[in-house]
Design brief:
Length: 406
């Protein structure tokens, strides 16, 4: 109880994120690994999270259908969901042999209570017994009516050729009979599964037979960023090449080696997970990580002088929530930006982000933008004819930007 009270006291000093403060480690999963929430219609969808209160609270979830620009659709729930509106989460287990107690919840769709009927954007909401929303997550369900080809290219604009990656898209309609697809299609482009920097509503550039082509330069380009940083505390009691010091008090404390801005250091390749995180315990099977992996206070530090714009730590581990909970503070004694936050042990990707005028500024990235950076991109094709009542996703394409060509 003492460690829980200490945790609550610390959180009360922060602004609440979108998730309730005691909810951690949400992830969509496939074969026990964290994935970007893009699923084919009919495919199994798994999700899980931890409740640090550890008291086996009753939670329920529901799914709501949205338009391509994330506005609630006009459909009745029975038109896109077969089964119950609210489904109680029945798969829960308490943590075992951990300093931080928690209850682990998990669910898989379709299940005996609910099945998704149509493609599109969905919002997953989880509520408690008082119908308070404790967590929201976006997910995407697509069909394969058209083929979507995606290529990662260099910019033709020489001023940004070393900083950005551009996408060429080809939609092959095949035998699909779509009414005026050039007018009624909406293209959405995503980088590393991030929802905060998507490119929306790029218009087709030209047609070639049964193919629709997008071969723009600026309109379909992303700042390339840099490879994600990472730390590995899957063996939570010991140091590593990323964890400089470990202390065990009420909870474990993992002090990471200080990072430096990489913008002026040039590009260096190392394998990352494009922002993902994998809770794990070294030398133990994946079957036990959900309840036997412990939590640690992870101490980030960035060795840079004071900046005029705020700096945040982000990744899939916190759903890229750029809120006060993940905002770094400058420590005059160490001359560094610092942040302590609670993260489940394992392998975690993260990056530092600068927020300028309320928006994340990729042009001002502290770690620079390098065309050599390995990113994963998705192209989602939404279609809504005049007689349709919702935006369906008729195709999805993806590409890993490796050895980007001209």
């Amino acid at each position: 109880m003492k460690k829980l009270l200490l945790f609550l006291l610390f959180i009360c000093q922060c602004s609440f994120a979108q998730d309730a403060f005691h909810i951690k480690s949400f992830q969509f999963e496939r074969t026990k690994e964290s994935v970007i929430p893009i699923f084919r219609l009919g495919e199994s969808i798994e999700f899980s999270f931890d409740d640090l209160l550890g008291t086996e609270i009753d939670y329920s979830y529901r799914l709501t259908h949205y338009s391509h620009d994330w506005k609630p659709s006009n459909l009745k729930r029975t038109e896109y969901i077969q089964g119950n509106e609210w489904v109680r989460l029945r798969n829960l287990k308490n943590s075992f042999n951990t300093l931080q107690m928690y209850t682990h919840y998990s669910e898989r769709l379709p299940n005996s209570y609910q099945r998704i009927l149509i493609s599109g954007n969905y919002m997953l909401e989880i509520v408690n017994a008082d119908e308070e929303v404790i967590l929201k997550r976006k997910l995407i369900v697509y069909e394969e009516l058209v083929s979507v080809g995606l290529e990662a290219k260099r910019m033709r604009n020489l001023e940004q050729a070393t900083q950005k990656q551009n996408l060429y898209i080809t939609i092959d309609l095949g035998s699909s009979l779509l009414q005026n697809p050039n007018q009624y299609m909406h293209m959405v482009l995503m980088q590393n599964g991030q929802f905060f920097n998507v490119i929306n509503d790029v218009k087709p550039q030209f047609n070639l037979g049964n193919q629709i082509k997008y071969q723009y330069d600026n309109e379909t380009s992303f700042y390339a960023g840099n490879e994600f940083l990472f730390f590995d505390n899957s063996d939570i009691r010991f140091t590593s090449n990323t964890v400089a010091k470990v202390e065990a008090n009420e909870l474990y404390q993992s002090f990471l080696f200080p990072d430096q801005p990489r913008a002026k250091l040039g590009y260096t390749f190392f394998q990352d997970l494009n922002g993902a995180f994998y809770p794990s315990i070294r030398y133990r099977s994946d079957e036990v990580k959900s309840t036997e992996a412990d939590y640690a206070w992870v101490y980030f530090s960035l060795d840079t002088p004071p900046q005029k714009d705020p700096i945040y730590v982000g990744g899939m581990f916190n759903n890229y929530h750029f809120t006060d909970e993940f905002k770094m503070e400058f420590n005059k004694e160490t001359n560094r930006y610092e942040l302590a936050t609670l993260i489940k042990q394992g392998f975690t990707n993260y990056n530092y982000y600068v927020k300028k005028e309320g928006e994340i500024s990729f042009a001002d990235s502290l770690d620079g933008n390098f065309v050599e950076t390995e990113n994963i991109y998705h192209a989602l094709v939404y279609y809504r004819a005049p007689i349709d009542r919702y935006d369906r996703i008729i195709g999805m394409g993806s590409v890993q930007a490796i050895n980007v060509t001209n």
